[in-house]
Amino acid sequence: MIGTIDGRRARLWAELIVLFGGVPLLLALALPPTAMWTVLGVTTGAGLVLLHVTPGFSWSELGKGGIDWRATALFTLATVVVATAMTLWLMPEMLFFLPQNLPQLWLTILLFYPFVSALPQEVIFRPLFFRRYGHLFPEAGLIWVNAALFSLAHLMYRDPVVLGMTFCGGLAFAWAYHRRGSFWTAVIMHALAGGIVFTVGLGRLFYSGAVGN
Q1: HSE-CB for 72 with a 13 A CA cutoff
Q2: What angle do CA 195, 199, 201 make, to 5 degrees?
Q3: % residues pLDDT > 90 (the chain)
Q4: Residue 56: CA atoms inside 13 Å, Cβ hemisphere, count?
Q5: How are the residues of the chain apportioned to helix, strand and coil, as percentages rounded to the nearest 5?
Q6: What CA–CA distance (Å, rounded) separates 153 from 100?
Q7: 20 to 30 A Cα–Cα from 23, which one of 36, 101, 121, 194?
Q8: What is the pTM assigned to this prediction?
Q9: What is d(CA 154, CA 41) in angstroms, rounded to the nearest whole number?
Q10: What is the per-residue pLDDT across 50-89, written as a single tens digit (0 to 9) for each?
């Protein structure tokens, strides 16, 4: 019995290291930027399968927990302030560049980002991480570990601003899911953050063309 438990724990550690450590490092340091979407697609698919077979997990649980609109509003306000300030500081010429110069692209990003980026990322980094691997870490540091791994997933952009903002965002999303028990609060926060970043101009650091630069 002890051997079985130890074996399963070792397998979970191996999965965790590959998914949340190995893949980001490969994308950032070894693979060409053109491989990004293929690797992310395969990784997301693998993550969905692993979540599905996680003992005790049910997809219906993602609908539990009401949306914390107060926390979402406060997070949105903070994101607007920080993202605008960072844009004015780092690249003032990009302030509101997309809505002013490329409105169709901007609207396309706002429409598809929640479903193509925010939702799949949240499934992998919140339910999969906490339900399958959360018990591997002390509870006191669990949210911090999750935020650090979420930030690491953006290492391919090779930008300290991106890493810092995704770490802070990861803390908020992890808190919404793990502490408030609301997956959809995390998804909405993530979607709003992405929309804000691309609206104010900081999205220049986050778009796929910035990978490897």
Answers
A1: 16
A2: 125
A3: 87
A4: 6
A5: 85, 0, 15
A6: 30
A7: 194
A8: 0.93
A9: 15
A10: 999 999 999 999 999 899 999 999 999 999 999 999 999 9
Do the Cβ atoms of 125 and 173 come closer than 8 Å?
yes
| Burial (CB count <10 Å: 0-12, 13-18, 19+), residue 137 | middle
Distance, C-alpha 156 to centroid of its chain: 13
Sign of the Cα torsion 64, 66, 67, 68 reads negative
**How many Å apart are CA 9 and CA 47, to the nearest integer?**
17
Cα 171 to Cα 182: distance, rounded to the nearest angstrom: 14
As a whole number of angstroms, the distance between CA 139 and CA 182 comes to 18
Look at the alpha carbons of 200, 201, 203, 207 in this order and tell me if their dihedral is positive or negative.
positive
Which residue is listed with tokens 């899911």? Answer: 177
Return d(Cα 191, Cα 114) in angstroms, integer.
Answer: 5
Q: Which residues of 92-119 are buried (b: 16+ CB within 10 A; e: fewer)?
A: eebeebbeeeeeeebeebbeebbeebbb
Q: What is the CA radius of gyration of the chain?
A: 18
Q: Look at phi and psi of residue 54 and say left if phi exceeds 0, alpha if psi is from -120 to 50, else beta.
A: beta
Q: Which of 203, 209, 208, 212 is CA-nearest to residue 94?
A: 203
Are the C-beta atoms of 168 and 86 separated by less than 8 Å? no
